[in-house]
Write a structure and sequence with these properties.
The chain is mostly helical. 88% of the residues lie in helices and 0% in strands. The protein contains 5 helices and no strands. Helix 2 runs antiparallel to helix 3.
C-alpha cells in the first residue's frame, strides 16, 4: 500500500467519526432544548397557578405547545420508517396541534398584556390565530397525503412558511410592544 492510499483511508475514517459525533451532538442539543423548554414551561405554569394571571398562563401554553409538544412530535414523525405511515401522520398532526396552540397563545399575549380592549390588537391576534390554524391544517394534510419524504418536503414548504411567519409575527409584536 502506498502512502497516499493510507492517508485517504485515514481521512475517510476521520470524516465518518466527525459525522457520527455531529449526529450525537445534534441529538444531545435537541434533547437539552426539550428539557429546558419543559423546565421553563413548568415554572410558568407554576407562576400562573400561584398568581392566577393570564400572561404567565399564555406564555406557558405557548412554550408548551411549541417547544415541548409541537416541535418534538413533528420531528419524531419524520424519523426513518415513519414517513408515509398513519402513525407518522398522526404524530405530525399532534405536533401541529401543539404548534398552532402555542402560536395562538403567543399571539394573544400582547393583546392581554399590552393592548387590552384595543380593536386592532384583537384583530391582529385573531388574524394570527386563523393563519396559524390554516397553516397547521395545511401542513398536516400535506404530511398525511405524502407517500415519501421528498414528496412531503416539496409540498409542505408554503404551509410551513405560513406557520413560521405567524410565529415570527407573534415574536415581532412582543418585541415592539415591550420596547415601547
Amino acid at each position: 500500500m502506498g502512502q497516499g492510499f493510507r492517508f485517504t483511508l485515514l481521512r475517510r475514517r476521520a470524516l465518518s467519526i466527525d459525522r457520527h459525533c455531529m449526529t450525537l451532538l445534534a441529538a444531545a442539543a435537541g434533547l437539552l432544548s426539550i428539557v429546558i423548554a419543559w423546565l421553563a414551561t413548568l415554572r410558568l405554569f407554576s407562576l400562573a397557578r400561584r398568581n392566577r394571571s393570564a400572561p404567565e398562563r399564555l406564555l406557558a401554553i405557548g412554550f408548551c405547545g411549541l417547544f415541548c409538544v409541537g416541535y418534538p412530535l413533528a420531528a419524531a414523525s419524520r424519523a426513518p420508517g415513519m414517513t408515509g405511515t398513519i402513525e407518522g401522520s398522526l404524530l405530525f398532526a399532534c405536533g401541529a396541534i401543539g404548534m398552532v396552540t402555542g402560536t395562538i397563545a403567543l399571539g394573544r399575549f400582547p393583546l392581554v398584556v399590552f393592548r387590552p380592549g384595543s380593536r386592532w390588537a384583537a384583530a391582529l391576534s385573531l388574524g394570527i390565530a386563523l393563519a396559524g390554524t390554516i397553516a397547521g391544517v395545511g401542513c398536516s394534510v400535506t404530511v398525511a397525503r405524502s407517500a415519501t419524504a421528498a414528496e412531503m418536503i416539496a409540498g409542505i414548504h408554503g404551509w410551513a412558511l405560513l406557520l413560521m411567519s405567524t410565529l415570527a409575527a407573534c415574536f415581532l409584536w412582543h418585541a415592539v410592544e415591550s420596547s415601547l
